[in-house]
Every structure is written in structure tokens, then in C-alpha cells.
Amino acid sequence: MKVAEIDYITKQITSKYTDYTYTINIYIPNNEAPEEGFPILYVLDGSSYFGLVKEAVRLQSGNALKTNVAPSIVVGIGHGADMRERRFYDFTAPAATYIYPERFKGKGHDKLGGAANFSRFLEEELKPAMEEQYPINRERQALFGHSLAGYFSLWQLFHHPSSFQSYLAISPSIWWNEHELFQYASKCLTKYEKIQETLFISAGELENTMVDDARQMMRMLRDIMDVGFYKALDENHASVVPTVMSRAIRFMHQST
After folding, report:
1. Cβ contact 136:40 at 8 Å
2. Which of 44, 120, 153, 244 sits at 20 to 30 Å (Cα–Cα) from 50?
3. Cα–Cα distance for residue pair 152/156, rounded to 1 Å
4. Has 72 been annotated as catalytic?
5. Which of 109, 159, 179, 237 is catalytic?
6. pLDDT tens readout for residues 158-178
7. With bands split at pLDDT 50, 70 and 90, how would you rate the model's confidence at 60?
């Protein structure tokens, strides 16, 4: 059996804003870059999802006439062995207090509230590094996040909407800190008459209240922006991403 060739590049990038070193995996299409550059999809929790996403992009872009998915760069942003704790810092918003749900049984996390610093890492360090090295279409950039990373994708949308043209939030942890994301969404409704960026939000049927939260978020935002919502039948929190990923990628390409 022939061993598959590695078709991506791996780098380590240390952020001065988060004081952390991330593993960055980069997939570059084996196509001539269009004059305007490749679309680019940034994947949070890249240690878990980069391989899945880059294969979904590669396969669908191979039949672009039917899928409408163009060859695209995929960037996975991964944590190290401390991923579970670290993502609670990088992906959560700063707050005066944090209220944990009952299922946490009183167990908290040592560090929370690093979303603003992580956002600066994306905007001021990672994205400029990618744009310096690769032919990127700055008008076709997307951010993908699942679970707590989906929470961050929404937080980024509400605080810096123009940083990406499309946001893909799969089973986002809207429940975090007493559903504070709904407060951020309400502020957006007051601040913006129209948001040009697009949002794809989804959850698995078996995720119970997370489906309701995602649907409520869609209903709040659909009058000011293009929002796609999808409930994945018979899927749970662990199984939903492979089921939904190709649909999310098609939404990204159809809306940017």
C-alpha cells in the first residue's frame, strides 16, 4: 500500500498577545492561484478538525461546477497537550464574573476571558503572516468553530464583524456564562442596520437545548444579515461536525 503524501505545511507560531505557541497547519490547493487570490478558511481547534476540513474542501473543489466550492487555503489553529484548559481561556470573553452550569458540579477553570487577546493574535499576527506568504483573497475569508470555538466565532462576529466575510458556528456554546452571547447579539441589532457578513449556524438534533439556542440566535440575526441554519438529524455533539462540514463549506462559498 502506498503511503499518502503529506499535502500541508506545519508551523509553530508564538503570539505576543496570548503568550502561547500554536500549531498552525496550512493546506494550499494544487491549483494555479486566481488573480484575486485563494479564498481562505481558518479552522479553530485545528488539532481536531484541520484534516477533516481540508479534505472536505479538496474533494468538493474538485467538482466546483456542482458544489460551487472553489480551491481554497485551509489554516488549522491548534493547541498543545493543554488544549482542554487552554481553549477555555482563548475562546471565552472577559467578564466580571462567570456562572457555571450545574453539570460542571462547581468545577471551574484556572484561566478564562482571553477572547480579546486571541482575536488580536488572529488579526494582527496570524492573518498578516498568511497574507505575506500566500496568495489570499482578503474579501473571501471565513472562520470555523465548533462548540466553545463556535462561541468564539460568534463573539468575533459581534465584536469585529468585518474581520471575516463568513462565520461558521457548529453547535456553538451559546449557553456559556448564562447565555451572554444573546446580550452581544442584541447590541449588534442596535448598532448595525445591516451586516454584510454571513453566518452559518448548526447543531445536532440530539443536542437538545443547543438546537434551541442556535435557532434563537438565527432568528435574532436574520433581519440584519444572511444567516443559514441547519439542524442535523440524529446527530450529537461529537458526531455533528463531519455531518455538517460540507454543507457549511458550500454556504461559505455561495455567500462570499
Report:
1. yes
2. 120
3. 6
4. no
5. 237
6. 999 999 999 999 999 999 999
7. very high
